Task: structure prediction
Amino acid sequence: MEPVRSLPKAPLTALLAVTLACGTTAGESDGETAESATSSGSSGSSGSSGSSGSSDSSGSAGPSGSDSDGTTTGATTSTTDATGGSSTTGVDSTSSTSSAGTADATTDATTDATGTTEAGTESSTGTTGDPLDELLTLDHVQVKGTHNSYHIEPLVPFDSSHEYTHKPLDQQLGEQGVRAFELDVHEGLGGFEVYHIAVIDSQSTCDAFTECLDVIKGWSDANPQHLPIAIWIEVKDSTGGLPIDADDLDLIDDDIRSVFPEEQLLSPDDIQGEAESVRAALEESGWPTLAELRGQVYFVLLNVDEKSEDYTYGYTTTEGRAMFARVGVSDFDAPWAAVAKLGLGDADSIAAAHGAKILVATNVCGAGEEDAACTSDLATAKDNGIHMLKDDFPGPVDGQDYWMDLDDGNPARCNPVTAPPECTSAALEDLS
Result:
């Protein structure tokens, strides 16, 4: 049954003020808070938002900061947490990850020098287990993602940044090659719901949180050789719904595990294995290989506010959690540090993340932005080796020249900074 929208939502006048103040583009403030979260809990200066991706300029965490969603305007080099701390890293791929039954396909497939499969068990995506699966790891890949992946343009948009509509999640996966999603999660009277802003921008291709997850799981089950799918979760209660506290975060974990079984979910504990922490495991061995990860999904908590502090037990650990937690540059050495969201032009911080084996996401282009700026931003993000490129336009749009086209790979390309020379886009996954 379709969930009933929660009644105790913010008054319409307040929501209008929030919307007009935020200018919610792909670089929106939109409820995200200061870019980094620190184990010490110290707060830094807040960043300011802007279209095309504003820069997260706060250096360290805490609930008081404001976040501009980890992106930069145009091809500029506005920085996110330019403190740039780093540590060398790596993961024990033999003990850290459960494989979703995908590694076995490697023994059945042979490929030519270009990575094209000649024999083996072919999945419905046209991809098979490839010998390079034993060499390539998760941080060697650059994938297309979507911002507010559920979003449907409202009948009367209050802001140009709301003027976009995404296809359903399974169509994004199969037709557009999306391998990273972002869902805004609110608590309603009957459970967790997915939408942007109550009343004024509330249309979604999947209303209930578990409904969205079921759509992803259905496609994943039918295409078990796919690259790992990242699902970013922004927990929001300032733009609609009931207040969300630490106990509610446990319930979000429960919802995730109710849909994805252990063998299909890459969790922080899978990475940590027998190591002291996620960070220690990454420092030893790096991320697991694609052979171990095909057919799996992994979740990242996007928040860097008090909800992140609660989720990481005071910025100490993600042990037992279903999601990784987004980390800021000043905390790349935190015990739970594994995934970050940074400004697309923040070359120093991105380089520090690469050195620390930390996966990086960014927002590239949002509705209402100029085609030329979006094209330039996409080139910058690709060249800087950002792993997950989120966008409002994963496919062609009538009357618009720009869309996120990874012309040398569908649905993914070899990361130009981190991938070894043997890597080919066809060896990653091939939807062509």
